[in-house]
Predict the 3D structure of the following.
Amino acid sequence: MTTKKRITKETDITISLELQGNGKSSINTGVGFLDHMLESFSKHSLIDLDIICKGDTHIDDHHSVEDIGIVLGTLIAESLYPVKNMERFGSANIVMDEACVSCDLDLSNRPFLVFELDIDGKVGTFDVELVEEFFRAFALNARISMHIVALRGKNRHHIIEAAFKSVAVALRRAMTPNERVGIPSTKDLL
């Protein structure tokens, strides 16, 4: 497992991961809904994850959620690049009851995020606007070009969980070993 630690005045985060793992996780972020989403992400990406975060959640969950995205994305980038002998592109449509969310991504080493989930309000005490903050921090720091689009859905919990699962499955597919592709770019470097 590879480990990264980040300490600021707002958060103290330690994340360990194994990219080619089995989807096992131990997650304690201090934000219950995020724990649930990251456990689901780990399970469906097959990335083993250990995450501990002590954040200023007495203010709100923003700093913890964004900073976890930063650290997780950075750790994935450090473990991924340069991309070689893997598919590079991945996509998934994930259904949760009435909700369906699509993720298409490219392990391009050029970060970009398209985020089209029309959600607002809260799930429990969790501000759903933080979902976009998490994925922006994650995509930019992992240096992944990622499009997350809700195709349908009404239940916020279902839409958000389908988003995390679609990113996980798309990432797992993009990381699928394939020695035939070598460096999957005409530039000869990713």
Observations:
- Helices lie at 32-45, 62-80, 129-142, 156-174.
- The chain is about 35% helix and 30% strand.
- The mean pLDDT is 97.
